[in-house]
Amino acid sequence: MAAEPKKKPTLKTISYMTGLAVTTVSKALKDAPDIKASTKERVKLIAKEIGYRPDAAGQRLRTGKTHVISLIIDTEEELFSMSSDIITGVTKALRGGAYNLVLAPYLHDDDPMSALKLIVESRSADGVILSGIESHDQRITFLSEVGLPFITHGRSNMGVEHAFFDFDGKSFAADAVALLAKLGVDRACLISPPTQYTYSQYLQEGFQKGIDKAGLESRMIFFDHIKLSIDKITESVTEMLKGKSPPQGLVCPSASVAVGVIGGVEAAGLKVGKDIQIVAKQTPTNTLRWFGRKVYSIEEDFTATGFELANSLLALIKGAPVLDHQNLSYPENVGFCVLCGKYDCASVADECLLKS
Question: Which helix (H) or strand (E) holds 23?
Answer without folding.
Answer: helix 22-29
